[in-house]
Amino acid sequence: MRRRRWMAGGMAAAAVLTMAACGADDGPPTLTWYINPDDGGQAAIARSCTEDAGGEYRIEISLLPRDASEQRQQLARRLAARDASIDLMSLDPPFIPEFVEGEFLAEVPDDVAERVSEDVVAGALAGATWNDRLVAVPFWANTQLLWYRTSVAEAAGLDMEQPVTWDQLIQAAQDQDVLLGVQGTRAESLTVWINALVESAGGHVVENPEAEAADVTLGLDSDAGREAARIMSEIGAQGLAGAGLPTADESASLSLFQGDRGSFMVNWPFVWTATGAAVEAGTLDTELLDDIGWAVYPQVTEGQESRPPYGGINLGIGAYSRHVDLAYAAAECIVSPENQAEYFTTNGNPPSSISAYDDPAVQEAFPMADVIRQSLEQAAPRPQTPYYNEVSTGLQGTWHPPSAVDPDSTPAQSSEFITAVLRGERLL
Q1: Which of 35, 61, 297, 401 could pair with 308 in a Cys bridge, judged by C-beta atoms 3.0 to 4.6 Å apart?
Q2: CATH code of the region 4-142+311-371
Q3: Contact at 8 Å (CB) between 130 and 95?
Q4: CATH of region 145-307+387-422
Q5: Residue 77 and residue 24: Cα distance in Å, rounded?
Q6: pTM (two decimals)
């Protein structure tokens, strides 16, 4: 039943399959690595690992679409048609359960699983695990920090060396007439915010992730869900994130944060390099960079550790690859701490490797590296379910715009709608 959604797409893909990647008669096998777009870092790692392989294999890259949902669709269609050309693939963590249940991923050998699970932050391990088994190789990890203007935090009397709560940020924004940077657009970033709030409040969007669609139990209509809705509602209804909140993505909230009324913002580590580049280009003042601080994601409940968002990329090995063993050998090379550290400094994508954060080049380029590592240890993946697309899209449709969210009704209505979609009673 879980594979039915891909049957039509898989039949179409079968007509356009390329020949499986394989080596020439006089050369080593060629492994094709399907990658998400970046700044050339994965291609550089592919070249490095090809050299390190000493002729055992060579890695070629194949570029996927920029949009994550289109990446999922292209890979799933090809794998449903048993495409042997996919040896390695860079996978967004929320799609991993669906790919496992579709039997699209080769099983991780026990010895490989043991090696690639060592020296890995807890959030990345959770995102690469399904049914209590490692099913993908953690590569780079991502998380949101709480970025703040030190001048605003000081004026608010907040000790940023200690955890702060969403209520404290809301109060500071009200008192100082400043704006909070959050992502309220109807997109994946909204799901990220909802999930982080619910998890930080001690709940889960999906309570039984391994259940069949009709049996999925949602945790939205709960104290945790209502507390998440309260925080989102207060920020939206009071205009504390500006008039553009309904369309604000990560870049828009960064622009708000960099403006005259910037104060606090939850966002990914690209904030640091983007702001530094703007200062270097002369479009922002150096004083702004000096005024920026960082901390772990805000708490929902004072004294209860927050669960920051987790993102990034894991490596999956295609179930129909002709070179599964070599693909896993290549994956281990790709995710070495040295490669992850280099990828962080050149492409800005944080490592899943704990030790990679100790690299002197990482510490110099990202002075908040230790906070990123701590955040990834606390981070919670987005809902892990083979029906992630239905859950995420359902959340975006029922929790938008943030100003219309009602803690007394939105969690229950959202739960009812998504449950009906999963049971085939309603359409997205």
Answers
A1: 297
A2: 3.40.190.10
A3: no
A4: 3.40.190.10
A5: 27
A6: 0.93
